[in-house]
């Protein structure tokens, strides 16, 4: 399944930096980093379960959020860039 993951980590407390670092590393292990707190990629159901489990060990449910958009097929997604286009590894879009 094709995944787009975005997260928002509360950095008001010092602990937020550690959470941010760990969440970033976990997401990078499974997905492609495309912009700030945004990742995308193709995952098996089992990989998505592992990703969720790992993220849940760090996400503070009262302060942080992660949103995972799922699509059965990446062909249904169209990407449009506005402004500066970075050299993202997004050539998997049709």
Task: Characterise the protein shown here.
The structure is a single chain. This protein has 94 residues and is α+β, with helices and mostly antiparallel strands. It has a single domain (2-73), classed as Alpha-Beta Plaits (2-Layer Sandwich). 30% of the residues lie in helices and 24% in strands. The chain contains two helices and four strands. The chain has a four-stranded antiparallel β-sheet with strand order 2-3-1-4, covered by helices on one side. The longest helix has 16 residues, at 15-30. The protein is globular. The mean pLDDT is 87.
Topology:
Elements: E1 2-8, H1 15-30, E2 32-35, E3 38-42, H2 45-56, E4 65-71
Antiparallel strand pairs: 1-3, 1-4, 2-3
Helix pairs in contact: 1-2
Pattern of helices and strands: EHEEHE
Which structural class best describes the helix and strand composition? alpha+beta
CATH class group: Alpha Beta
CATH topology: Alpha-Beta Plaits
Short description:
By secondary structure, the protein is of the alpha+beta class.
Task: List its salient traits.
94 residues; Alpha-Beta Plaits; alpha+beta; 4-stranded antiparallel beta sheet; 30% helix
